[in-house]
Amino acid sequence: MPLSVLLRASHGRLSRSLGQRLLLLALGIVVLLGLIGICLKPGSSFAEVLKRAGPNVAPTLIAGLGMTCIIYTGAIDLSIASIVAVAGSVFGIAVHRGLPPSICFFACSLTAAGLSTFNGWTIRATRLPPIIVTLAGLALYRGLALILADSAVPSFPGYFSIPGEALHLPGKVYPGWLLLGAVLVAVGWEWSARTPRIWQALGSNEEAVRLAGIAPSRVLQSAFLVGGLFLGLASLIYVTRVTSIEPSRLALGFELSVIGAVVLGGTNIFGGEGSFLGTILGAFFLHFVGEALIFADISAYWQEVITGMVILSVIGADCAMHRKRKRMEELA
Amino acid sequence: MKRWTLPALLLVEIALFTWISGVRLDSGGAAWTYFRGYFADLLAQSAPALLLALGMTLVISTAGIDLSVASQTALVACVMSTFSEGQRFWATAVPIGMLLGIGLGLTNGWLIGRLDVPPIIATLGTMILYRGLCFAWLGEAENSPFLSVPGYEFLGEFWGTLALITLAFLGFGTWFQNSRWRREVLMMGGNRVAARYAGVPVTRRTLEVYGIVGFLASIAALTFTARNGSVSASSLTGMELRVIVAVVLGGTRVQGGMASLPGTFLGVLILAVLDEGLRGASRWGEEHLPFKLSHLQFVLLGLLLVAGVWLNSRREAQGTPKPRS
C-alpha cells in the first residue's frame, strides 16, 4: 500500500525542530505577557488584556488556520485581504437591503469560501503558479468589492455603517466561542484525519503523491476549499467587528499578518511541514507583540513598522535555517 | 504572441480612445499638434513606471518578483521631501535619496539572496515595512519642496524624462543585450542550481539585480516628484501591480529565464494609454455604468496579469520559445 507508506512518512509526532518552535513561541508569549504586566498602567487590568486577546486575535488566527492548509501544499493565497473586502461588500449590501441577519452572515461567509475555492479552481485549470493567480486576485477582488458596492447601493458614500445592536453581530457578541470552536475542530482534525497529511505530502513531494495514486490537482483544490471555509468564518468575524465597512481599505495588509502567523508557527513556507498548533501560537504571539508595543507607548505608525520587522526577521531566520538543508538536497 | 502583437495593440488602443474622447482631427496640422502633446504627456506621465518596469524585468527574469518597488519609490520621495529647498537640495537630498534607494533594494536582495526567503514573501514584507516607514516619517502630511528647487522641474518634463528613459532603455539595454551579466542573470532564472554549478555567483547577482531596482526606484522618485510637485505617505499605492502586469504583458516569463526590454517598454505604454483612456471616458461611464470606471482598472489589471502569464506559458507549450532581447 503506497498510500499507507506515504501517510506514515509524514505522520507521527511533531518533528524536533517544530516542537522546539512551539516551545519557543510559548516562552515568547509568557515573556511578552510579563512585559505587559510590568508596563501596566493603573487604569487598566491584566485580566482585561487577556480577555480581549481572544476576540482580537480571532480573524487572524482562523484565517491563519485556513492559510496553513494552503501553505501545507506548497501553494499560497495572497488575495485573502481582498476576499475579505468582497465579503464585507456583500455583507454591507445585504444589511443595506434589509435582509434577515442570518442570511447576511451566511452570504458573507459563503462569498469568502467561494472566492477561495475559485482561486483553487483557477490554479488547477490554468496550471499557473499560485502566487501569480492569487496576486491577480489581490487586484481583481478589490476592484470587484468596489464595483459591487457601487452598483448595488445608489450614490454609495464609500462605506457601509452597520447598526450593531439590531443585528446581534457574531464578531462583537460571541467571537471567543467561534474561535474556540474553530481551534478545537482544527486541532482535533489534524490529530485524527488523514487529509492534512496528504496536503503535507503534496507540499513535500508532488511526484510521490502522483505515484501514490492521488491526483495532485484535486488535493490542491481541497486545500483551497477547506482554507476557504476557515476564511469564511474569519471574514465574518472581521467584518462584523469593525464599525464601518470601507471596501477600498478594509483588511489592507491582512495577508501579511496571516502569513506571518503561519510562518511564525513553524510551518514551512515551501510546504510539507507544520502544524495548526503552531499557527495558533504564532497568531497569539503576534497579537501580544502588538499589545506590548501599545503598552510601551509607541506610536501607531511605528507599531506597524516594528511588527513588520518582527515578522520579516522570523521568516528570514526560518528560511536561513532551511537553506542548508536545501543545499544538501541540491547535491543529492 | 507574435512580434507585431504589442505595437498593434498599442495603436488600436490609441485609436479607440482618441475616437471615444471625441477630439476633432480635421487637418494634418491639428492631428500633429494633438498627438505631439499626447505622446509627450504619455512619456512624462509613465516615466516612473517605465523605470520601475525596467528593474522589474531584470528581477522577474531571475524568477524573482519585487512587490516593494512602489513603497521604495514612495519612501525615497518621502525622505527627500523633508530636506530644505533651494540649490542645496541637489547636493543633499538627491544623493541621499539615491543611496537610500540602493540600500532598500539591497535589503531585499539580502533577504532573498543570502537568507533564501522566497522573493514574493520577502518583498511583500518589505512592501508593508517600507510603506509603514513612509507613514512613520511623514505622518499624514503632504510635503512639496520640489518645485522650489532650481532646475528640478526639468526632470518631470518631456525632454528630461526622454533623456532619462533613453539612457535607461537604450544605454543600459545595449550593454545588457550582449553582456555576460545578462546571460548569467537569465541562467539563474532558468535553472538556479545549474547556474550555481556553472560558476555563476548567484547570491551576488541577486544582490546586484535588487540593488539596481532600488537605484531605479530612486530615479523614479525623482521623476515622480518633479512631475507631481508633492508627495504624501500613501503616494504610488498599487503601482507595483501595474508594473508587474506591464512586464508580463511584454513577454517576460514569470518563471524566469527570459526577458524582453522592448516588450516591457510597450507593455508600460499600453497600460498607460489604458489608464489615460479610462480617465478620459469617465464621463461616458458616469452616464452608462452603475459604478465608477476607475474601479474597473483593478479588475482589468488582474485579468491582464492572468491572461499575460497564461499566453506566455502557452507560447512555450507550443514549443516555440523564442528568447528575444
Main attributes?
heterodimer; A: 332 residues; mainly alpha; ABC transporter involved in vitamin B12 uptake, BtuC; two-stranded antiparallel sheet; 2 strands; disordered N terminus; B: 325 residues; two-stranded antiparallel ribbon; 13 helices; 1% strand
List the chains of the largest interface with their residue counts.
A-B, 50 and 44 residues
Overall tally of structural domains of chain B: 1
CATH architecture assignment name of chain B: Orthogonal Bundle
The backbone outline of chain A, from C-alpha atoms, is globular
Instruction: Supply the CATH architecture of chain A.
Output: Orthogonal Bundle
* Straight-line N-to-C gap of chain B: 15 Å
Strand order of the largest sheet of chain B: 1-2
Rg over alpha carbons of chain B? 20 Å
The computed structural class of chain B is: mainly alpha
**Order of secondary-structure elements of chain B:** HHHHHEHHHHEHHHH
Compute the average pLDDT of chain B.
89
Instruction: Kindly state the percentage of residues in helix of chain A.
Output: over 70%
Describe the structure.
The complex is a heterodimer of chains A (332) and B (325). Chain A has one domain: ABC transporter involved in vitamin B12 uptake, BtuC. Helices cover 77% and strands 1% of the residues of chain A. Chain A contains 15 helices and 2 strands. Chain A has a two-stranded antiparallel ribbon. The longest helix of chain A has 32 residues, at 300-331. Chain B has 325 residues and is mainly alpha-helical. Chain B has a single domain, classed as Orthogonal Bundle (ABC transporter involved in vitamin B12 uptake, BtuC). Chain B contains 13 helices and 2 strands; from the N terminus they run αααααβααααβαααα. A two-stranded antiparallel ribbon of chain B has the order 1-2. In chain B, α2 runs antiparallel to α9 and α10 crosses α11 (261-280). The model of chain B has no long low-confidence stretch (mean pLDDT 89). The interface between A and B is large, with 50 and 44 residues.
